[in-house]
Amino acid sequence: MPACHTVKTGRQSLQTIPSQLLGRFQDDYGSSYSITHKQWVQNNTYKYHLIHYNKNENYFIARNDTANPADGGLYTRIDIAFFNNMEPWQWGYCLAAYKAGSEQEALQTPPADRQNPRKGCNGYPFSRMKRTQ
Questions:
Q1: DSSP sequence for 24-44
Q2: Which helix or strand (DSSP H or E) is residue 5 part of?
Q3: pLDDT tens per residue across span 77-123
Q4: Distance of alpha carbon 37 from alpha carbon 60, whole angstroms
Q5: Which of 25, 26, 49, 56 is deepest in the core (most CB within 10 A)?
């Protein structure tokens, strides 16, 4: 499969991102986020260029910005979990992989345990998110 087809497919899949994941957010640790169809930005310091969103399995694959303070140019898998009865926290995320050497390696990372949001993120809790705007 030509590389341009893979990129095109990834970009098209970004259009399927649920609207509740787009916008400005704050997590339960006080970090701020801006999420668009192209980027996931944390505290205006860490930028992740979104490549793919898997709607069925609720995860993103992203390339870490080369200017990030750590793991620049590597790949990240961001697993999403939607919550019920946790207001104001509507959803949470886990960086299942954050320094994968390739997009394929990030894709092959085992998913976080969404059934256990308190310890299912590599032994840690998912970061819970609430909308700020």
A1: EEEETTS-EEEE-SSEEEETT
A2: helix 3-14
A3: 999 999 999 899 999 999 999 999 999 999 999 999 999 999 999 99
A4: 11
A5: 25
